[in-house]
Amino acid sequence: MRMQFWKKTVDDIYCDSPPHQPVAIELWKAVKRHNLTKRWLMKIIDEREKNLDDKAYRNIQELENYAENTQSSLLYLTLEILGIKDLHADHAASHIGKAQGIVTCLRATPYHGSRRRVFLPMDICMLHGVSQEDFLRKSQDKNVRDVVYDMASQAHLHLKHARSFHKSVPVKAFPAFLQTVALEDYLKKIQQVDFDIFHPSLQQKNTLLPLSLYIQSWRKRY
Q1: pLDDT value at position 153?
Q2: CATH architecture of 38-219
Q3: pLDDT exceeds cutoff 80 at 100
Q4: Which of 13, 104, 188, 207 could cross-link to 28 by cystine, CB 3.0-4.6 Å?
Q5: Residues 123-144: pLDDT tens digits?
Q6: Is the keyword Ligase in the record (predicted)?
Q7: Cα dist from 105 to 1, 42, 113, 146, whole Å
Q8: Residue 112: phi, psi to the nearest 5?
Q9: pLDDT tens per residue, range 159-215
């Protein structure tokens, strides 16, 4: 019912008749002000609706598709708000969104495990002979860490691809991509603990993260 509400709300927003709901009204204002593309908003809703059953991803590509349609779609909208229409920026946004999706899946694993749920791609788990029960038991076996390593490596690869467009992406787009600082921070921390996804240090906040964000912004990098 919630997904149906938002589908109808988005349709109504683009017909200039938003419902009297605070978020819907602000979204309508943003759509009018920045001429936001309806397709990106609908992709976010449709993809979330497809994943309401909360099953594990069958493979890494399925996770990446989910990230593309949710995280990357949000970045495309952010670029539109910044007035950026650039193919290189879109390519960077696509890779950053996928990296965000993979890192979010990794970071949430201890939380989901505490509720006896595992969403990590089944193909990678099977490749290393790891079961969902291994993650529920918070196993620190090498094959469990190998699963985490493979996923972290894929996220890192997406960041690398996104940064390969650095010289071609308009500088105005960089603020939309500063989340790469937080993504890289997590990937470095998980490498330092030898890909033990349940290590307590991964649950601690990095108090220097705001400074890192400021420095990266000042350097005009992402």
Answers
A1: 98
A2: Orthogonal Bundle (1.10)
A3: yes
A4: 13
A5: 999 999 999 999 999 999 999 9
A6: no
A7: 25, 22, 12, 15
A8: -65, -40
A9: 999 999 999 999 999 999 999 999 999 999 999 999 999 999 998 989 999 999 999
What are the distances in angstroms from CA 209 to CA 11, 57, 74, 127, 206? Answer: 38, 30, 22, 35, 5
Average pLDDT, the chain: 95
Boundaries of every domain in the chain = 1-35, 38-219
- pTM for the full model? 0.93
Give the type of residue at 90: D
Q: Write down the pLDDT at residue 126.
A: 96
- Distances in Å between the alpha carbon of 33 and those of 15, 75, 81? 15, 17, 8
Q: What does the alpha-carbon distance between residue 81 and residue 174 come to, in Å, rounded to a whole number?
A: 13
